[in-house]
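Following the same procedure, backbone shapes were mapped to integers, yielding the entry below.
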Amino acid sequence: MSEVHHGSCLCGTVRFCIAAPLRGVVYCHCSQCRRQTGLYYAATDVDVSNLTIEGEGNITWYASSDFARRGFCATCGSALFWQCNDADRISVLAGALDQPSALTAESHIYVEDKGDFYQICDGLPQSRGAAEAEKPGGSPG
């Protein structure tokens, strides 16, 4: 039996289904992720072919850099996705997944750019950027 995971935005306008195992959660502390969420991204990633989205027309895509985009619900503003341009994989924010998710924490990236108002004390691997550990979906957004 294959793994199936469901999730949605806060208002339920965008719903999704992932028919594949999920990678562990990577926490991204870059300034863009912090500004979008108010803290940091906590995301898994999957092959795009394993993701089905209901209400896809309600996703607003924001080109946050020359090489990546961020998808959020146009109705409630929930951050949902991060993807390198033309990539075969897409990051899915862990908090958008229905519980129980069975996810486990994996690592922290862009820790050099983290906010000055919190500490990382969980003992997980940390990297200054994306070179040492892949950011959810590939690279910084």
The first helix runs from residue 31 to 37. The chain has a mean pLDDT of 91. The helical segments are 31-37.
